[in-house]
Design a protein that fits this description.
alpha/beta, Dihydrofolate Reductase, subunit A, ten-stranded mixed sheet, 10 strands, 27% helix
């Protein structure tokens, strides 16, 4: 892996164009280096980042899953982003399609998480209006930290009760069947979760974008073409005016680009 942006220089004299060899040379990065590259900004409110993968022609999935367009380094970054997060926010359809399991504790992140006042692993927060989920799965019955279910006040009481019997914590974040994204972010913040990570899917990410609550996008661009009718990384209605994000960092390995973009109106906070 090599860093393409930002470029760092060994001395002021080299600032005319010669990048450090360590950045320009292909090498495997340590987990600590990746954790530093993807560290959350120091803010006092919930910071929501997304992590998605896309092909060159915009496909976020192949045969309904993201794994076929990913690679080993993308999965390492996936693990690092989870290792840094307080909570992983994910849509119910993605939970069903991807076979979500509880986040696991990783020894490599134990000291870092302890120093940050975090538990051994991030909680998983499932966004669902219908609560049409299998609450007998390990995601709900045997996580290290209780799985959260984000839903609306009009959710079916019997499904809410079943989720709670399984050990999940139900969080009401909307007045109707579904959630209000801004309210969901505030609710997670009220629970002490300020480092938020969403892994989609496209419908949920589209809702978060439309509500203006997404602070950061970590996007892996895979050097692949998929064609077909696969979803983009974000779906739903378009926003009135496209939101402007600025490039924070860009890494490359074997043709895959690993980018990190931050909302332009919050660039000074990164």
């Amino acid at each position: 892996m090599r860093r393409l942006f930002p470029v760092t220089y060994e001395t002021a004299a080299e600032a005319s164009g010669k990048a450090l060899e360590a950045d320009a040379t292909e090498r495997e990065w340590e987990l600590g280096e990746l954790a530093e590259a993807y560290a959350y900004p120091e803010v006092r409110w919930p910071w929501l980042r997304a992590n998605m993968v896309s092909t060159l022609d915009g496909a976020a999935q192949h045969d309904g899953r993201s794994q076929p367009i990913s690679n080993a380094t993308d999965m390492r970054i996936f693990g690092v982003l989870r290792g840094l997060a307080d909570v992983v926010v994910v849509g119910a359809e993605t939970v069903r399609q991807e076979g979500y399991r509880p986040a696991r504790a990783r020894e490599a992140f134990a000291a870092l998480r302890e120093a940050a006042g975090q538990g051994p692993a991030p909680a998983i927060a499932v966004v669902t209006a219908s609560l049409d989920l299998d609450f007998s799965l390990p995601l709900f019955t045997s996580p290290l930290v209780p799985t959260l279910v984000l839903t609306g006040a009009a959710a079916a009481p019997d499904r809410v009760a079943e989720a709670e019997r399984a050990g999940a914590r139900v969080v009401i974040a909307g007045d109707g069947m579904g959630i209000d994204p801004a309210r969901a972010v505030r609710a997670l913040g009220d629970l002490g979760h300020t480092r938020l990570l969403t892994e989609g899917g496209p419908r949920l990410l589209g809702q978060l974008i439309a509500a203006g609550v997404l602070d950061e996008m970590c996007l892996t661009l895979a050097p692949m073409l998929a064609a077909g009718d696969a979803q983009r990384i974000a779906g739903g209605p378009s926003v009135p005016v496209p939101q402007q994000f600025g490039l924070v960092s860009l890494l490359e390995e074997a043709g895959f680009l690993y980018s990190r973009y931050g909302r332009s109106d919050r660039q000074s906070e990164q």
